[in-house]
């Protein structure tokens, strides 16, 4: 059992997931790091500033989880299982979603359509001087984010 430096534990804990990785919990570390940076991507791409409220939650959880784990005796730390937060959902929860293949297909088609519009159609319309690319992309992203939120809300209301 290797002892961990308190200094490096602190330094690595500043980046969500890196502290868990330093302590040997790679799955949890990668999951936290992915969640943190994916949240930043969502905020930037869809311009939904409300999502930014998740960043301090993810950061604080990661920071304090690192120190809680580091404070454990080495034998207890070695006994902890390295499980991703998403493992249970992907194994059991995803299988419980009715029509999951249809939903996955819809998401992939929508994402492909978004890429096509964003990277081909809008630049071509700007080249023809029909639109302002920056404004069009902002409107497109806002409309897509709004539709996604509305669809999720309707789905939750209807059960």
Low-pLDDT regions: none
Number of helical segments with 4 or more residues = 8
Q: Given the C-alpha coordinates, what overall shape results?
A: elongated
Distance between the termini: 50 Å
Assembly status: single chain
Biggest sheet architecture: none
- Strand proportion: under 5%
What is the topology?
Layout lengths: L5 H8 L4 H5 L3 H21 L7 H17 L3 H6 L7 H10 L3 H28 L5 H26 L1
Features:
159 residues, 76% helix
What this model shows, in words?
The protein is mainly α. 76% of the residues lie in helices and 0% in strands. It has helices at residues 6-13, 18-22, 26-46, 54-70, 74-79, 87-96, 100-127, 133-158. Helix 3 (26-46) packs antiparallel against helix 4.
Summed up, what is this model?
The chain is mainly α and 159 residues long. The protein contains eight helices and no strands.
């Amino acid at each position: 059992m290797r002892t961990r430096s308190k200094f490096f534990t602190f330094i690595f804990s500043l980046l969500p997931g890196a502290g868990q990785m330093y302590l040997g919990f790679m799955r949890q570390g990668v999951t936290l790091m992915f969640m943190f940076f994916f949240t930043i991507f969502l905020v930037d791409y869809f311009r939904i500033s409300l999502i930014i409220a998740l960043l301090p939650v993810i950061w604080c959880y990661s920071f304090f989880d690192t120190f809680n784990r580091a404070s454990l005796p080495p034998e207890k730390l070695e006994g902890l299982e390295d499980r991703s937060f998403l493992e249970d959902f992907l194994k059991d929860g995803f299988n419980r979603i009715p029509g999951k293949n249809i939903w996955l297909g819809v998401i992939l088609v929508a994402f492909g359509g978004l890429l096509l519009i964003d990277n081909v159609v809008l630049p071509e319309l700007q080249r023809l001087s029909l639109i302002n690319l920056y404004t069009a992309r902002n409107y497109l992203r806002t409309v897509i984010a709004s539709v996604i939120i509305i669809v999720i809300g309707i789905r939750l209301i209807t059960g």
